[in-house]
């Protein structure tokens, strides 16, 4: 509510000031403070409107620094004082944006958009938008978003861009950033990348699922590259891959790569296995064959869209994690969150066999 009061107190003064500090024609700002997976789903809009400035979460800065479509970035940490937000609002105002697009319509983001005083401001109205945020954003052009609508399509709709296979194309870095230090050894014929978990505990599959997946990969003599943070090591150690799967080659990449180095490494895989993580969307952006285990996540709202993406929902389990409403705790067990049917396991096994065949033939990719 403080944002509402302060926003409407400051706005008339800034509107008067805008008379002597006019907007710059064609200058655009995108405000998206979500994490990696949501950020990558924002890149189709970024590319379509380029060049653009962005306000983003600090976590995404390594990717943003290697994005040719972004001119300037302002960082907005989750814990930022009101004074810092006012300083940021003033910097945005001075830029004179003609259009602002608010993709994460929180109160702080709407507050920044209000005080930036663009000629036009476009925002999403979601199932989580509170009434006082709507009042704060009065006069903004709104696109109403519901859980059954693809978030990426509604991002594009903010700029009146039709959703097609071409306009939906994502990227992690553009052009693809090639790191100086590489973990990938190309003599490994069948390279499979995996993410064992994510920042949200709900995105951790049962131990038994990983054991079965590793068994299938061992049968194909795969080299498994484990990507993630150092604090995910306990999940890797629980699998005890060297002892349980002696014919499987393991490359431990935990904590060894910077975020901007991940997309290139993922692009060198023949297959990527993950729950609904940011790495899964990196693989999708790179056009890599992937298996995305949605678990509690709502695939109708956000999912990998590539031709090589096998997206598996939890049959009989209602989704409980959404783009704009993502809990971090539940009373359900991983087994309850990630049930897989016999038919789904058959599809998994078929894709693994197919990609192993592709790898042995020397071809890097094959449609699912």
TrEMBL record:
Keyword list, A-Z: Glycosyltransferase, Transferase
The UniProt record lists the keyword Transferase: yes
GO biological process: lipopolysaccharide core region biosynthetic process
Gene Ontology CC annotation, any one: cytosol
Domain of life assignment: Bacteria
Residues that span the membrane, as ranges: none
GO MF annotations in UniProt: ADP-heptose-lipopolysaccharide heptosyltransferase activity
Pfam assignment, any one: Glyco_transf_9
PANTHER family documented for this protein: ADP-HEPTOSE--LPS HEPTOSYLTRANSFERASE 2, TETRAACYLDISACCHARIDE 4'-KINASE-RELATED
Protein name (Swiss-Prot/TrEMBL): Glycosyltransferase family 9 protein
Native species: Proteobacteria bacterium 228
């Amino acid at each position: 509510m403080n944002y509402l009061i302060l926003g409407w107190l400051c706005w008339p003064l800034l509107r008067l000031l805008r008379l002597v500090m006019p907007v710059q024609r064609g200058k655009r700002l995108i405000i998206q403070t979500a994490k990696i997976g949501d950020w990558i789903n924002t890149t189709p809009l970024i590319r379509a409107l380029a060049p653009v400035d962005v306000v983003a979460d600090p976590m995404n800065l390594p990717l943003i620094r290697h994005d040719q479509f972004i001119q300037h970035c302002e960082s907005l940490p989750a814990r930022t004082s009101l004074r810092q937000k006012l300083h940021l609002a003033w910097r945005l105002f001075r830029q004179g944006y003609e259009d602002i697009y608010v993709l994460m319509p929180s109160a702080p983001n709407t507050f920044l958009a209000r005080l930036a005083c663009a000629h036009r401001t476009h925002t999403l109205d979601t199932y989580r938008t509170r009434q006082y945020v709507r009042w704060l954003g009065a006069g903004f052009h709104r696109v109403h978003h519901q859980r059954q609508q693809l978030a990426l399509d509604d991002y594009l709709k903010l700029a009146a861009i039709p959703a097609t296979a071409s306009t939906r194309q994502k990227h992690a870095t553009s052009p693809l950033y090639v790191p100086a230090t590489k973990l990938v050894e190309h003599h490994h014929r069948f390279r499979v990348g995996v993410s064992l978990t994510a920042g949200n505990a709900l995105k951790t599959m049962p131990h038994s699922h990983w054991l079965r997946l590793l068994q299938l990969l061992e049968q194909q003599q795969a080299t498994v590259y484990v990507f993630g943070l150092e604090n995910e090591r306990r999940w890797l150690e629980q699998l005890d891959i060297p002892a349980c799967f002696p014919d499987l080659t393991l490359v431990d990449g935990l904590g060894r790569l910077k975020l901007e180095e991940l997309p290139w490494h993922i692009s060198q895989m023949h297959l990527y296995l993950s729950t609904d993580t940011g790495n899964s969307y990196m693989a999708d952006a790179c056009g890599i064959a992937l298996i995305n285990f949605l678990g509690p996540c709502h695939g109708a709202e956000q999912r990998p869209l590539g031709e090589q993406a096998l997206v598996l929902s939890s049959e009989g389990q209602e989704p409980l994690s959404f783009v704009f409403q993502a809990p971090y705790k539940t009373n359900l067990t991983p087994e309850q969150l990630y049930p897989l049917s016999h038919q789904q396991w058959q599809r998994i096994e078929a894709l693994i066999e197919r990609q192993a065949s592709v790898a042995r033939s020397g071809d890097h990719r094959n449609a699912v």
